[in-house]
Structures are given as C-alpha cells and as structure tokens.
Amino acid sequence: MKFIMTGKKLDIGESLRDHTSSKIDEIVNKYALEPIDCSVIVTKDGYRIITDFDLHLGKGINVRTHSEADDPYVSVDAALETLEKQLRKYKKRITDHHKKRDVEYVKTSAQQYVLDSSSESQELEAPVIIAEMNTDIPTLSVGEAVMHMDLSNSPALLFLNGSHGKMNLVYKRADGNIGWVDPHSAS
After folding, report:
1. What was the pLDDT predicted at 165?
2. Is 159 in contact with 137 (CB distance < 8 Å)?
3. What is the pLDDT of residue 158?
4. What's the CA gap between 70 and 133, in Å, rounded?
5. How far apart are CA 83 and CA 38, in angstroms?
6. CA–CA distance from 7 to each of 10, 79, 80, 87, 157 (Å)?
7. Which CATH number is 106-185's, of 3.30.700.30, 3.40.50.300, 3.30.505.50, 3.40.50.1700?
8. Which residues form a coiled coil (predicted)?
9. Tens-binned pLDDT, residue by residue, of the chain (187 aa)
10. CB 45 within 8 A of CB 12
11. 169 near 157, Cβ under 8 Å?
C-alpha cells in the first residue's frame, strides 16, 4: 500500500507519521483488506487541526473520513475511528464485492462541470463554467451505490442501475435517510 501523509500549515513529524501508519496497518490487517493507497492530509486552521483520510480500496471504492480537534494526534485518531466504523459497517459487502465483481465492474464516461455560484452576472441560460473534467459513472446495484456513497462521504451518487441499465441517483436527505431517484420505474 502506498501511504502519503502531508501537512498544510503544519510540520508533520516522524512520530505522527509512524503513529498514523501503524494504526492504518492495524485496521487494514483487522479487516483483511488490500488497499491500493492511502492519503492523509493534516491541516492547521487557526487553533483547529483538520484531518482528512482517503483510503482507496480499488474497484471504485474510496473510504473518506474527516475530523477536527485541537491536537493532531486526537484529530488523526478520531478520523481513524470513523474510518474503522465505516469499514466495520460494510466489512462483509466490501470483501464480497472484491470477489464477485472482479470481471463485471463497468464504468461509463461522462463530462463533469463545476459552475461558479458566486458570479454576480449569472444568466439562467449560460452559467459560468470554472472547471470541466471527465468522470466515470459506475454500474452498480442500489445497495452497492448506497455503500459507495456512504464510504466516500458524498452527499449524492449518480450510477447506472445494473438491473435495467438506466441512470439512477441516491442521495442523503435532510432528515438523515437515503433518497433514491429511479426514473425507470416512473412510467
């Protein structure tokens, strides 16, 4: 596993780097995972320390966590605790996912745009595009899409439904539940 730990406005010492690396190794060994890479960004924002983890497990599965604390060790440990909770919740599905989806994992290319919401002279017909990039839309079941969205800590996930091949959307609702948009079933 490739491990990268960087600090923004903060010097990451060997002690914190070794502490984080050993904790990640414990978690990976505990859940019998073979991650491709792990990146950790520790940022100092005033008096707060913000830690962001991104653990790439392959086959489109990224586990992302975020934590804030007054101390770097406390912040890293809180993010690792959240990471472990997510892995514990989806342990069986993640390990089964690797075995049964090796050949079937399919992605469709699409164009992704980032629009400038702060532009004062925005017209309804032509919003200001500030970034344009390619993105992949995975083919998943609804349960797998919810798992991917939850693990990646995203508010929504667009996917091709494996049962009928149409675009679907799962999203986190304001009440804490998961919403699912399936235009195929609305006939």
Report:
1. 84
2. yes
3. 92
4. 36
5. 12
6. 5, 15, 17, 25, 29
7. 3.30.505.50
8. 73-100
9. 899 999 999 999 999 999 999 999 999 999 888 899 999 999 999 999 999 999 998 877 899 999 999 999 999 999 999 999 999 998 887 776 555 544 345 677 787 777 777 766 555 567 787 888 888 888 889 999 999 999 998 999 999 988 888 899 999 999 989 999 998 655 5
10. no
11. yes
Domain residue spans of the chain: 2-98, 106-185
Chain-centroid distance of CA 13 in Å reads 26
pLDDT of residue 124: 59
What b-and-e string marks burial along 83-113, b requiring 16 or more CB atoms within 10 Å of the CB? bbebbeebeeebeebbeebeeeeeeeeeeee
For every residue of the chain, DSSP letters joined together read -EEEEEEESSPPPHHHHHHHHHHHHHHHHHTT---SEEEEEEEEETTEEEEEEEEEEETTEEEEEEEEESSHHHHHHHHHHHHHHHHHHTHHHHHHHHHHTTTT--EEEEEEEEE-SS-TT--SSSPPEEEEEEEEEEEE-HHHHHHHHHHTT-SEEEEEETTT--EEEEEE-TTSPEEEE-GGG--
